[in-house]
Amino acid sequence: MIKAWFKSGSPWVWLNAAAVSTSIILVVGLLILIAVRGLGHFWSSDIVEYLYDDGFQQTVIIGEVVETSRMTVNEAKASGYKVPDNAEFFEQRLIKTGNRDILGSDFRWIQSQYIKKQSYLKDLIVLERREWGNFYGRLVSVKENGKIVAEGGKAYQVAQQSIDRALELFDEIEFLQKKKIGSINYALEHLRLKNRRLQLQGKWNEDEAQQQTAGKTFYEQSYQELQKRLVGLYLKIRRDSLVVKDSSDTTVEIPVAKVVRLLQPNAMNVAEKIWQYGIKFFDFVSEVPREANTEGGIFPAIFGTVMMVMLMAVIVTPFGVIAAVYMREYASQGLTIRIIRIAVNNLAGVPSIVYGVFGLGFFVYILGGKIDQLFYPEAAPAPVFGTPGLLWASLTLALLTLPVVIVSTEEGLARIPKSIREGSLALGATKSETLWRTVLPMASPAMMTGLILAVARAAGEVAPLMLVGVVKMAPTLPVDGNFPFLHLERKFMHLGFHIYDVGFQSPNVEAARPLVYATSLLLVLVIIGLNVFAIGIRNHLREKYRALEN
């Protein structure tokens, strides 16, 4: 019976099914872990106040409980901790105390045995600041132009109004600086380069000089007007401040301009916390990073990732399809084509960092340098395309994923019955017409499969991008309102590199850990979204041409 069962192949079927099921369970479990760790970062946890006495001094600690660690008494003693003789276990708590400008760090480990008292008072606040991280303590009063306008129970409501007003002013300041003044600076630089170009071409004359002077005068006047508006806005935004007390009962005055959000988590109900959760998550996906990428949002990284993948797809698809069509439909199937196929398959296994080095040497230094010499001599010695940027990153990843598209497309072409080609030719169509109107449409699902695999690999690559365009912080997006609107020469941010930078290069590891999970989850969601879009197109094409295949 057992021999017959093994000969039937059923054990191997069950073994494969178990392996696939285990892989799916592990992947789903990993995604759940990332989601729980990442999405939990946006929940407004209660703030606890401890009376802590470790035998040397008695202190008050205010913050959020981030993690609890337990170990046996023997393990604790072996690690050098002092444990009471009657203790059943040894427990430590990681507290996010914030107030980095005062305490020097955001987190602190405490031992539960030294906690004399803990309380969750409703007047405890958390201030999310633009710098120095969160502040934990109590709100004392609100000042306007140095005078107290609210204190006690009314201070929280007045402080919220002051923060909302400051946020509106801050948005207006950011708009003037990045949009209006940014456009003026771009136009002035364009005038400077035009001046230099005309001088190099020997076309500089008095008329051009007058036009340049008039344009420069106009932009400088506009700049001065905007500067006056900015000065007025800065005076308004610096008017208010919050007077708060930290855990040591020290009074601190914090300008409202440096505050992003004020919360009293202990006084909030579940509905209010859910509302704040949505606001925090929206800010995370729509705002720019702060505090060396450990605070704020990641919108530039999301935008850069999607933009790079879309450009890569536009570049790699036609080249991959053309190469596959030539090798399958036109080239004679001899030794040369077999060698090319082997080379293409081997290219798929080359480490990605090798492509990055090639992209840096060929695309950036050679091709980009030649483009600068031919079309942008006036910008010298500053490079335009002779420096890493979005275009070169997309081309490098297109080269990286090209073998996948070629192989997938060629397999799709091979599956099309020969009778369909012969029938088309018998009806009087030329070979190119047969290929364009019959063969390629039927092979389009295979092309989309190759594109799906290319997108899945390219979106998660980091190593080559570190050499050809990705940066820690990009001052501007590759797309803006200045002609030509899409700036392929600019550097950009990427979710994969953001994860690497926050997780391994951050000076504040504990603060960065939740952002690593949250950003990883978003990267997975972006890849899934791009793949679902491509899969939808592939399934539509597959249904459309299934009748012809039958």
Summarize, please:
By secondary structure, this protein is an alpha+beta fold.
What does this structure look like?
The protein has 550 residues and is of the alpha+beta class. Among the domains are: 140-254; 307-494, MetI-like (MetI-like fold, Orthogonal Bundle), CATH 1.10.3720.10. The protein is built from 16 helices and 13 strands. The strands form three sheets. Strands 6, 7, 8, 9, 10 and 11 form a six-stranded antiparallel β-sheet that branches. The chain has a five-stranded antiparallel β-sheet with strand order 4-3-2-1-5. The chain has a two-stranded antiparallel sheet with strand order 12-13. A hairpin with a 4-residue loop joins β12 and β13. The relative contact order is 0.09.
CATH topology name of the domain at 307-494: MetI-like fold
Mean pLDDT: 87
* Dominant shape: flat
The poorly predicted ranges are none
CATH homologous superfamily of the domain at 307-494?
Answer: MetI-like
Which sequence of SSEs, written as H and E, runs from N to C? HHEEHEHEEEEEHHEEEHEEHHHHHHHHH
Termini gap: 42 Å
Fraction of residues in helix: 55-70%
